[in-house]
DNA sequence: GATGCCTGCCC
DNA sequence: ATTCTGC
DNA sequence: GCAGAATGGGCAGGCATC
């Protein structure tokens, strides 16, 4: 397959929109299947800009690569002058470059890349460079590549059997195959992910206790359990594995249909320094299939509710030029808090999300007039954070975060901590510009430290929960049956948990809260977005004070934390309830909640 | 050998 | 991770 | 609602550089 053909396909895809992108790639794959099916693997990998799974360990793939490598080598001999590149040549070369390591690795890689580039013609170079940069940005990613593959396989199959189908019937067949491809993709272990991560000194004696918390079983004795409901998967997990104190546990969970119970379990989780809960249906839509997963797994964290959570007002010290769709505006900013005693601005975090396109355009305009040549003495930040543009202290952003942590790079409150370490934010996002604040009205270093400390305290004490109120909404499931309650408790520790799991796939599926975020913040109408149908939900939650639910996909661990909200003043209201839901399907069911914790 | 920058990965 | 946006 | 594409802190490992 000529590389040029591939590059041209990418170019077309870039300009098309919606499903047409998939159709275009599907046609390309169909052609590949027709003329050089042996190149399909490489084409698929290149479409997702990956070199494939850990080829060293995957014999099947390795075999393919061997063939590819051979072909490529043969071609190269006769390739005295620029000869048209082919998919195998390029793919093989990329793999080769990826494997180069050791001394002089960079130099060698560069020279190999130069060689590849000099063989490019026309648009080939453009896409080759993007591939090398890791950003294809053609608006088509993994999911679409899988769809295209499904389409191509459908057509190939039909051609093979000489059948002719079209219209709705054909579409239906495609859908079926797309689903098969995606399912296979989900069920097929990725050796790269499963392989043990390299750790030079993975000892356990560095004072940090590490434990594994199991919460699901996707394969057992060679059989995929992905299609089994969570209740069964969990039962197999619990009956076939044994807990080992100090290192191997089952995630703490509670089975319930009662939101109050969920809330109190959530409080307990927070107390134990967990980030929150993963709420899943036990029986209904409780399998691990991709298309439904998003509807039956919800993540519940304290910072998802508008008006609640840590909020800070920080000064924009500098900015970084934007890439891709942010070309021409800033892609992110360096923010700092103000230390009145030293009259310095200390970096707290960079920020790059939460902005609408309009926000970015407006900010770029505002900041042009605040640009200054170099960072003033009163700007404290690590050299590695040096912004492309630096501004006089002026603009103030209201930022929300999930946590406040000690940082190895940021300077906030570094003069106030015992060890001199600074403070930073975890998962910072932009909420809005604080027009009503001057730079020196920003959150102070002391306040930042205070927020950090109160988190610690909070996490270590018992929270009285409670609430009161209820809201209406209900949750619950109706159908599905029985309830039992069960729970295990283990609490323990804390260390960071880690986990990694879910080797099966990585996808993301957010349920975002409604887009009402900023508005809600301003208008405080937390419920507004929620009403969504509460019909069939998987689970709906709300609480009286904090908590909301978001959806997510892979559960995992968490880290610390707790709640609290302070802010330099913004109005946080706390109100109410919240409910989120997942999607309408019809039946409700009982849910199981795992504490995502470490 | 120590230090710094970059990459890949986890959230 | 979080968030926004086009489809 | 999905999929894609912007972007965060932090860690560990690997390579470059002093």
TrEMBL record:
Q: Which residues form the signal peptide?
A: none
What Pfam families does the entry give?
Answer: DNA_ligase_A_C, DNA_ligase_A_M, DNA_ligase_A_N
User: Compositional bias (Basic and acidic residues) at which positions?
Assistant: 498-508
Enzyme class label: ligase
Q: Which GO terms describe its biological process?
A: cell division; DNA biosynthetic process; DNA recombination; DNA repair; Okazaki fragment processing involved in mitotic DNA replication
Superkingdom per UniProt: Eukaryota
Looking up PANTHER family in the UniProt record yields: DNA LIGASE 1 (PTHR45674:SF4), DNA LIGASE 1/3 FAMILY MEMBER (PTHR45674)
Protein's organism: Caenorhabditis remanei (Caenorhabditis vulgaris)
Q: What is this protein called?
A: DNA ligase 1
Give the ATP-dependent DNA ligase family profile domain ranges: 203-339
Entry keyword set = ATP-binding, Cell cycle, Cell division, DNA damage, DNA recombination, DNA repair, DNA replication, Ligase, Nucleotide-binding
């Amino acid at each position: 397959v000529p590389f040029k053909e591939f590059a041209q396909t990418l170019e077309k895809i870039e300009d098309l929109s919606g499903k047409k992108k998939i159709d275009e790639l599907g046609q390309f794959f169909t052609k590949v299947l027709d003329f050089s099916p042996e190149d399909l693997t490489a084409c698929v990998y290149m479409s997702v800009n990956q070199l494939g799974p850990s080829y060293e360990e995957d014999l099947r793939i390795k075999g393919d690569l061997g063939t590819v490598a051979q072909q490529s080598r043969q071609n190269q001999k006769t390739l005295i002058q620029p000869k048209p590149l082919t998919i195998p040549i390029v793919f093989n070369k990329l793999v080769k470059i990826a494997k180069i390591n050791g001394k002089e690795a960079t130099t060698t890689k560069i020279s190999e890349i130069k060689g590849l580039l000099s063989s490019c013609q026309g648009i080939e170079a453009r896409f080759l460079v993007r591939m090398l940069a890791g950003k294809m940005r053609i608006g088509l990613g993994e999911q679409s590549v899988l769809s295209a593959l499904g389409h191509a396989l459908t057509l190939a199959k039909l051609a093979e059997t000489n059948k002719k189908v079209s219209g709705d019937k054909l579409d239906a067949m495609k859908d079926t195959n797309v689903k098969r491809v995606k399912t296979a993709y989900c069920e097929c272990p990725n050796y790269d992910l499963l392989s043990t991560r390299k750790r030079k000194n993975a000892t356990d004696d560095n004072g940090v206790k590490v434990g594994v918390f199991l919460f699901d079983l996707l394969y057992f004795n060679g059989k995929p359990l992905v299609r089994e409901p969570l209740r069964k998967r969990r039962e197999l997990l619990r009956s076939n594995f044994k807990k080992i104190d100090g290192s191997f546990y089952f995630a703490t969970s509670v089975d319930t249909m009662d939101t109050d119970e969920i809330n109190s379990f959530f409080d307990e989780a927070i107390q134990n320094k967990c980030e929150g809960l993963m709420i899943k249906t036990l029986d209904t839509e409780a399998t691990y299939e991709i298309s439904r997963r998003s509807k039956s797994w919800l993540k519940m964290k304290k910072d998802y509710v508008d008006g609640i959570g840590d909020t800070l007002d920080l000064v924009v010290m500098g900015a970084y030029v934007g890439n891709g769709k942010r070309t021409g505006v800033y892609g992110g900013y360096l923010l700092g808090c103000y230390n009145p005693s030293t009259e310095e601005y200390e970096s707290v975090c960079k920020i790059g999300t939460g902005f609408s396109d309009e926000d970015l355009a407006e900010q770029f305009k505002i900041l042009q007039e605040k640009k200054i040549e170099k960072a003033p003495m009163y700007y404290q930040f690590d050299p590695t954070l040096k912004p492309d543009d630096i501004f006089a202290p002026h603009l103030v952003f209201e930022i929300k975060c999930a946590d406040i942590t000690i940082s190895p790079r940021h300077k906030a409150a570094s003069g106030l901590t015992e060890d001199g370490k600074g403070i930073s934010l975890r998962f910072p996002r932009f909420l809005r510009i604080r027009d009503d604040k001057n730079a020196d009205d920003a959150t102070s270093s002391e306040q930042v430290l205070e927020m950090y400390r109160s988190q610690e305290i909070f996490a270590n004490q018992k929270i009285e929960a409670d609430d009161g109120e209820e809201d209406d909404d209900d949750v619950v499931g109706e159908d599905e049956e029985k309830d039992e309650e069960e729970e295990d408790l283990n609490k323990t520790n804390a260390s960071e948990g880690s986990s990694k799991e879910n080797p099966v796939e990585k996808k993301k599926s957010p349920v975002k809260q409604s887009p009402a975020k900023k508005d809600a913040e301003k208008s405080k109408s937390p419920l507004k977005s929620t009403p969504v149908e509460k019909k069939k939900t998987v689970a709906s939650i709300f609480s009286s004070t904090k908590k909301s639910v978001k959806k997510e996909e892979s559960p995992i661990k968490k880290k610390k934390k707790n709640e609290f909200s302070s802010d330099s003043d913004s109005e946080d209201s706390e109100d109410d309830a919240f409910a989120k839901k997942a999607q309408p399907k019809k039946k409700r069911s009982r849910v199981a909640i795992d504490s995502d914790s470490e």
